[in-house]
Amino acid sequence: MIVDIHIGDQPVKVDLDRLTPTARALAEAVADHPARSTVDIWMEADAPIRDTTPDWHLWYTEAEAARPERRPWRGWSTKPLNGTGPHERLEDEAAKIPPGWHVLGAHPARPVPSGPVREATSAQVLTYLREHGRDITAATWSSYVARNQAPQPVRKVGRTPLWDLDEVERWHAR
Q1: DSSP secondary structure, 45-113, as one string
Q2: What predicted TM-score, i.e. pTM, was given to this entire model?
Q3: What are the domain boundaries of the chain?
Q4: Tens of pLDDT along the chain (174 residues)?
């Protein structure tokens, strides 16, 4: 699927199927914005406010604290494309999004069509595992995958394999 967006002042066409899930969500959010430009987009935490905010009870009700935190993201590079393609720029921008957050959309009430990203690169899988008490190296993860002792990638974007995070979570729970 091709979308028309602006990166900087340049109109570009982006093939969503060439992007990793996070970069795709960024492109979808930009395409959904009325300006179709790299403006503020909304991010959402994977965890509820009560799990991420100290003293949450001073600021939020129990119901509010049960919801994930949402905030606008303004991390876009202001550099022109200058020979860099739009797909590469979107991948670079997606890499800036901190672990534990995902792209919500152009507006907090209008999530991107693809929904929250539930696929991850090997680096993101290793970060997830480390944050959940299982610190393994990239070589160990590759070995587990090669011996079918860990989930297999569900697809590739270019040469980058992607894993289903639900499968990784189930594997880690075992």
Answers
A1: EEEEHHHHSTTGGGT--HHHHTSEEEEEE-----S--TT--HHHHHHHHHHTSPTTEEEEESBTTB--T
A2: 0.67
A3: 2-105, 119-173
A4: 899 888 877 888 999 988 888 889 999 998 888 877 777 889 998 889 999 889 999 999 999 999 999 999 887 776 767 677 889 888 888 888 877 788 999 888 888 877 766 778 898 899 889 988 999 999 999 999 999 999 999 877 778 888 888 889 899 988
